[in-house]
Design a protein that fits this description.
The protein has 137 residues and is α+β, with helices and mostly antiparallel strands. 33% of the residues lie in helices and 26% in strands. It is built from four helices and six strands; from the N terminus they run αβαβββββαα. The longest helix has 21 residues. The protein is globular and about 35 Å long. It starts with a helix and ends with a helix.
Amino acid sequence: MNFNEQIQQIEQGTPYKSMFCDWFCTRKQLEKQGKTNLSRTKYLLETWGIDLGKVKVYFKNNFPVEGDLYDRIYIENIDNQEQYMTVTPRYGHKGENYTKCEVWFHTTNEEIYFDNWLTFKKKASTMKEQVRERLGL
């Protein structure tokens, strides 16, 4: 199922938890996070000119031993199921990158960190060509 179809299912009443492959938070929090993650993902893909019908998206709620619960957004190529990228709006592991926004391009095995989600969101529109090149689009 591609991202357009996933969005349609949510709009027709499918719970946001259907977008998660794993979670450790309450169901109420999961729905809230799902709504936020869906909005963030749609914004990024549309900003970068990536066809929503050519990707699949899923979320994972992570529970580190040391740190805070946090979500990851996985974006993969619908044709071959290869991971394009992982976006972590707020990294939860204690350490150097704690609370930063992480973007990991699986195609080039490159990680980029931003101070936070808002900093990344502002920068995202200037990254269109860079992102498309890294994803081989």
